[in-house]
Amino acid sequence: ISKVGIFTSGGDAPGMNACIRAAVRTALHAGKSVTGIYQGYQGMIDANFQEMNSRSVSNIIQMGGTILKTARCDVFRTPEGRKQAYHNLKKAGIDGLIAIGGDGTFTGAEILSREYDIPIICIPGTIDNDLYGSDFTLGYDTATNTVIEAIDKIRDTAASHDRLFFVEVMGRDSGCIALNAGIAGGAEAILLPEKSTAIEKLCTQLESAAKSKKSSTIVIVAEGEENGGAYNVAKEVKSRFNFYDTKVTILGHLQRGGSPSSFDRVLASRLGFAAVRHLLAGETRVMVGLCGNEIKTTPLEEVLNKKVYKLSEDMLEMMDVLSI
Ligand code: F6P
């Protein structure tokens, strides 16, 4: 490999920049050229490339978002789109790729590297923490801390007015952010995609919270849970149990921004470094991930096909006990 192409794709996540920095510098240190591919797969199709040097990644370790920009690209799903992308990569002399993103990004990487002769190493970058093969994904720790900060602030106003808040958090089909931020923020209940919670049961819980004279009640609603999100849950609860003055807060995209936590910066650096080392060692179609305290590789096929369940049962049980 003489020229490494690097790109971010799918939803941005805090830590992506720290990871770009690590990957670029590791490749340069090994005597390779590096090209930044802007806007993910869309940039491959548009030949939106820029040569990178050590200074291109100065002062970005602390920045949220991604300096390489990102996109969700439908054209890349077509054989014609991928043909154009490969043609552009070849023309630019890019003969190895580092992809940072989530399962959509990995699906594209897997297909491209099977159709064309180009090695690709993937790095898990998504706030959702929903990937097999890594205990944590880049951005998840920062996003969870952002949610906790928001819950603490909502708690202040909720307690001042004796209100019930339904706070909706991101995570797609994963309840990792909801469960961890809910526990750390002292939520009274957490609705998760992985575990169904009947509205009746929730109402019973809220009723007993009201009877025990709680001055504020916060229910965390994961966006992927079965009742259709915080507004719906609030409506359903209100129609059965109308003791509290009720409010809904959707935290939305603010969960994706901000300076990465120390955990995410270190993880990003380790994954970026390892990804380039594996690429230069001749590997392809694997994801680098954190397992225990070690960086390991998992074939993309496995990452994409194995179901991941990252909630621990003791935390689920603890949740009900600690919220009384
Ligand atoms: O995958 C990251 C994520 O932020 C999810 O939690 C959320 O469901 C989705 O992306 C939102 O996507 P978009 O930014 O395209 O609206």
Automatic annotation (TrEMBL):
Highest taxon of the lineage: Bacteria
Pathway given in the UniProt record: Carbohydrate degradation; glycolysis; D-glyceraldehyde 3-phosphate and glycerone phosphate from D-glucose: step 3/4
Gene3D superfamilies: 3.40.50.450, Phosphofructokinase domain
Leader sequence residues: none
Keyword Magnesium: yes
Entry's localization field: Cytoplasm
Keyword match Transferase: yes
InterPro entries: ATP_PFK (IPR022953), ATP_PFK_prok-type (IPR012003), PFKA_ATP_prok (IPR012828), Phosphofructokinase_CS (IPR015912), Phosphofructokinase_dom (IPR000023), PKF_sf (IPR035966)
Active site per UniProt: D128 (proton acceptor)
Activity modulation comment: Allosterically activated by ADP and other diphosphonucleosides, and allosterically inhibited by phosphoenolpyruvate.
Catalytic activity, EC: 2.7.1.11
Catalytic activities: beta-D-fructose 6-phosphate + ATP = beta-D-fructose 1,6-bisphosphate + ADP + H(+)
This protein's UniProt keywords: Allosteric enzyme, ATP-binding, Cytoplasm, Glycolysis, Kinase, Magnesium, Metal-binding, Nucleotide-binding, Transferase
Binding locations of Mg(2+): D103
Complexes and interactors: Homotetramer.
Similarity field: Belongs to the phosphofructokinase type A (PFKA) family. ATP-dependent PFK group I subfamily. Prokaryotic clade 'B1' sub-subfamily.
PANTHER family: ATP-DEPENDENT 6-PHOSPHOFRUCTOKINASE, PHOSPHOFRUCTOKINASE
Record protein name field: ATP-dependent 6-phosphofructokinase
Originating organism: Parapedobacter defluvii
Lineage: Bacteria, Pseudomonadati, Bacteroidota, Sphingobacteriia, Sphingobacteriales
Name of the gene: pfkA
